[in-house]
Amino acid sequence: MTDFGNDPGLWAAKGIGSAAGAAVSLVYMLPKGKQEAASRFFTGLICGLIFGGPAGLWIVSKLGIAGILSGTEVMLAGSAAASLSAWWALGAAARVAERYGRGNRQ
Question: How many independent structural domains does the chain possess?
Answer without folding.
Answer: 1
